[in-house]
Amino acid sequence: MTRLPLILLFLATACGDGSGDAGSADGASTRAGGSSGAGGSSGAGGSSGAGGSSGSPCTTELYQLASSSVLDPNAKAPALACEGLTFGRSFKRVDVLGGDLCPGSTQFPPEYPPECQSNADCGANEVCLCSIAYETDGHVYTVGAYPNRCIPAECRGPDDCGGRQCGLSTDTTVAPNGLFCRTGADECSSDADCTDQICLHKTDHWVCSNAGIPEGI
Question: Cα–Cα distance between 18 and 92 in angstroms, integer?
C-alpha cells in the first residue's frame, strides 16, 4: 500500500480555533456550536490581519507547497483559512479571493501525479486547485488538493457572488468538491456553526453534513 505524504497526516496535531461566525458577513444563520472572532496563526503562512480588508472572517494566509511538507513563501495564494481541527480537517472555513490558486509549483513524488498545473489545464467552469497550505507551530497543514486537481468553480472570488464570499467546499479528507458562493439561505458559515458535523456545499447552499465522517464518530 502506498504511504501518504506527511502533509496529509495532520490528525496528530490540533490547531487553534480560528473560525469566526460570518453570519453578518454572508447572511448565514448560526447553529449550535458557533463561535465569535477570527483567530490567526504564527509562522509561515500565518495571520496578517488580511481578513478585515477582504471581508472574510478568516485571517490565515495560504501558500502553495514547494514539496510535500515545505511551503513556498513566494507563492501566496488568493485565499484565507479559518484554522481549527474538525473531524480531521485542519480548518473550519476557507474563502477564495481570486481565481489563480496555483501561484507556485509543487514537486510531487511519482506516485502522486498532478491533474493540472494551472487553470489552462482545466475546463471552462473549473479551476486548478493546487496544494495550498499554512504553517503554524512548525507543522504544515494542507488546505488545497494533494496532488493538484481540477474542481468545479461557481465563483472565483467575492465579485462573482454579489459581494458575498466564495468558499472552498471539501469533505473531512480535504477532498474538494468545488468553489461555491455563500448565500443568505446557508445553514452554516463554517464548521463552528455545526454540531458534530462539517459545513460544506450541497445543491445550492451550504449545510451542516456528515459527509466524509466515519460512522460512530
Answer: 8
Taking phi over 0 as left and psi of -120 to 50 as alpha, with beta for the rest, 115 belongs to alpha
Q: How far is residue 39's CA from residue 26's CA, in Å, rounded to a whole number?
A: 18
Q: Which of 60, 52, 51 is nearest to 134 (CA)?
A: 60
Please state, in angstroms and rounded to a whole number, the distance separating the CA atoms of residues 174 and 90.
9
Q: How many CB atoms lie within 10 A of CB 24?
A: 11
Q: What are phi and psi of 62, to 5 degrees?
A: -120, 145
Residue 27 backbone dihedrals phi, psi, to 5 degrees: 80, 10
Which CA distances in Å does 3 have to 25, 112, 190, 216? 41, 11, 31, 25
Question: Which helix (DSSP H) or strand (DSSP E) does residue 152 occupy?
Answer: strand 149-152
Instruction: Give the pLDDT of residue 49.
Output: 39
pLDDT digits (tens, 9 = 90+) for 100-135: 999 999 999 999 999 999 999 999 999 999 999 999
Contact present, 140 and 69 (Cβ < 8 Å): yes
pTM listed for this prediction? 0.76
Rg of the Cα atoms in the chain? 16
Cell digits for 177?
Answer: 468538491
Smallest Cα–Cα separation from 58: which of 207, 197, 192, 161?
192
